[in-house]
TrEMBL record:
N-acetyltransferase domain residues: 6-169
Gene3D superfamilies xref list: 3.40.630.30
Domain of life: Bacteria
Name by which UniProt lists this protein: GNAT family N-acetyltransferase
Amino acid sequence: MESERILFKALEKEDLPLRVEWLNNKIVRDTLFVQFPLSLKETEAWYERVLQDNSRRDLMLVEKETGKAIGFAGYVNIDWLNRKAEPFIAIGDTEAWGKRYGTEVVHYLLDYGFNELGFNRQYGFILDFNKGAVKMDLRAGFEEEGLLIDDVFVHGKFHNRIMVGVTRDKFNKRFDKK
């Protein structure tokens, strides 16, 4: 799997130390739903459970030009019966922020999910203070669908979450796909 500038590779056990490093970076963690620093041991236990979980797929993001891993992405809450899923992304390498990798990755996940995996709907939730993620998701093909008031308690207080989603037909029509 690859987009214009990114290679998507399966998450492997040897990738876990880098994932832990990124998620333990307060700057990265503050943009996500991650409350506590993670240990490598608990991440390894998480990884073993994930290998058996058919409702998710986890991928590493690698810059084609440099071969450097810059983050991770994939799908969670895959509902094969109802043909829907929640794509996710985290650019862990803060030096890669601001280069529109996020938009490229989310767009690719939407396109791949709809046109290769057969999803009919994809959706997501964004912390309301993460304006960059909102812009990224809208540019990539999502539409804003709603606001969940005081929905999550994260980083010491309640936050709203913005719900985004899109159907295959709307996405394909907007981007002249299939």
